[in-house]
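Re: that backbone. Tokens:
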């Protein structure tokens, strides 16, 4: 195993390139360079290391098999890769009437604040709570809370809320609502 560390720089101006992907070819490990272009990764002797970044030509480097020691440093230069795109012609609307029609009929998507407002609406949340089942974490938390409450009074009688003012307030509100009237 070899500790490979180094810096990735532009070939023309020798400036560090941030966020270059440094991966072991044929493997599932890799890293990226920091803001100054510096990287560090553990590799094996003979591994092929691939450097790739948007806007630069990819480079493939092989770690020497006859390397002495367990550290290897390198300076990797990358050449800019220019991509030419086909020409785009932008034309105005043919007539003023068509522009006005399209301008009036264009639907503008909601911004992030409006989307958040819709997602946190009380009625929407209540409707979603009824149709979306509880996930595993919610079900586990509910079960653990229920068991914790049960174990709190294990082997003894749970307290009676006879002198609890909150319980009395709820009882009086339920009585005023008519919760205790017979339904017959």
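Recovered sequence:
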């Amino acid at each position: 195993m070899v500790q490979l560390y180094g810096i990735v720089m532009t070939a023309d101006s020798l400036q560090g390139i941030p966020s270059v992907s440094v991966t072991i070819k044929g493997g599932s490990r890799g890293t990226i360079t920091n803001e100054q272009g510096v990287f560090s990764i553990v590799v094996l002797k003979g591994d092929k290391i691939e450097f790739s970044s948007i806007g630069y030509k990819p480079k493939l480097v092989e770690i020497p098999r006859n390397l002495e020691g367990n550290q290897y440093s390198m300076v990797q230069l990358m050449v800019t890769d220019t991509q030419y795109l086909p020409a785009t012609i932008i034309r105005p609307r043919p007539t003023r009437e068509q522009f006005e029609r399209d301008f009036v009929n264009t639907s503008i998507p909601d911004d992030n604040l409006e989307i958040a407002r819709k997602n946190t609406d009380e009625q929407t949340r209540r409707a979603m709570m009824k149709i979306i089942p509880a996930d595993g974490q919610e079900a586990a938390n509910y079960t653990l809370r229920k068991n914790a409450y049960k174990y709190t009074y294990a082997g003894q009688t749970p307290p009676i809320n006879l002198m609890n003012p909150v319980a009395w307030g709820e009882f009086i509100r339920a009585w005023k609502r008519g919760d205790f009237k017979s339904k017959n």
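The chain is about 30% helix and 20% strand. The chain has a mean pLDDT of 89.
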